[in-house]
Design brief:
Elements: H1 2-15, E1 30-37, E2 43-45, E3 48-55, E4 61-69, E5 71-74, E6 82-89, E7 92-108, E8 112-123, E9 129-134, E10 138-139, E11 148-152
Parallel strand pairs: 1-11
Antiparallel strand pairs: 1-2, 1-5, 3-4, 3-6, 6-7, 7-8, 8-10, 9-11
Amino acid sequence: MRKAFIFLLIVVAAACSKEEFCIQPSAVAMTMNFKTYDSTLTLVDTPLVEATVFNLDTAYFFVDNALSLTRASVALKKGQNAQTYVIRHSNENDTVLIRYQSDTNFISNGCGYQTYFTLENATSASDRIDSVNITSERVDNINTNPHLEIIYK
């Protein structure tokens, strides 16, 4: 009985060790590319001049007055299912509404959880934007490709 108690004590002590290796999760960002059609109707990157990108719902600025911007990374907010982003360039505002689902993923006991997102819909009512296409609906740290293409007229 004494040997069983000592064995159980060792097992419990080893299981409660806080020395688990953990690579801390980094922030998850959604990436949007800005495109336009050239004369041959091929999509090409289009630089937005003096561009600012911010979240209308939180007033958080992701890019502020960039001289030439072809790509921007923005955060989605967990616990919400939609965010509105304002893209300001050439002294005019364009808004893009993103609808998404949050997904909490367990990483490990030492690291905890991280939130990933699944894009469901992206729209814009701007006269200058032709369309908004979801090119990669899963927003996590594994996929580094752009998630949205915002195509200007």
